[in-house]
Amino acid sequence: MAISKNMDAPKARYAEAVKSTKVEESNNTEYIAVPGIQGERGDTGPAGPQGPEGPRGERGIPGKDGKEGPQGPQGPKGEPGRGGGQGYESPSGQYPGWAYYQNKNKKPLFLGPDRGDDGWVDILMEDDESSNVLKFLPQGSVSLWNSVTQRINFKQLKVGARIDIRYDIALTTDTNSTEAWIRTYIPKVESPTGYIGMLKYKYPYEMSVNQTLYVDLSKIRSEGGIIQARADNESTIMLKGMYISVS
After folding, report:
1. DSSP-derived 3-state class of residue 106
2. Cα–Cα distance between 49 and 31 in angstroms, integer?
């Protein structure tokens, strides 16, 4: 193969091409950032100024009721009630109260159309002090029963007072279909009469009979009440005890 004398010409262009390529490769170099080690945290800066108040938010859902708290201390004593000590705001000014009297005399009394005063027989009672209940008597009142006079005592009561009495009795009939009555007799005053009833059989009955009286006259207080019973056939009666209530 023959060598041409013009072989140097391509070399100059090749060198330029190489140089041009190197320059281009240099211009196309890419650099990748690699994170370094994190440094120490700096000091906290001063707080900035408070911003303006924002709009009011919507009302939230009510919460559940809390537990009941402990009882508070007792309050001061109240002022005395009206009435100036004259009863307990009743029209009569009468203090309320009651008492129970038990009879320790167990001897029965005879009833019949020919006994007593027109059939009315006084019922005697010897109250048993060990069994009486007197701690609930009206304020300022003495006993409501007087065993000496054998009368219910109205002397300490005010005009206008009401008296409710319950007689606990044992009544034995000797004849079928016997009618019986009981009353609180107040001399010189119309007295209330209680109808015990028509007792159908010859039988020993035990029952309670209620009566109500009103101290509408001053002389009722001075007279007092006598317990009496009546029957249209031969019978016997015993007063076991009685409750006397005042208002």
Report:
1. coil
2. 44
What is the identity of the amino acid at 191? S
> For residues 223 and 200, is the Cβ–Cβ distance under 8 A?
no
- How many structural domains is the chain composed of? 1
Cα atoms in the 13 Å half-sphere on the side-chain side of 191: 20
pLDDT tens digits, one per residue of 186-229: 988 888 889 999 999 999 999 999 999 999 888 888 899 999 99
pTM: 0.64
Burial class (CB in 10 A: 0-12, 13-18, 19+), 197: middle
**Planar angle of CA 84, 85, 88, nearest 5 degrees:** 110
Q: Is residue 60 part of a domain?
A: no
Write out the residue range of the structural domain in which residue 159 sits.
97-246
Question: For residues 161 and 213, what is the distance between their CA atoms, to the nearest angstrom?
Answer: 9
Rounded distance between C-alpha atoms, residue 236 and residue 174, angstroms: 8
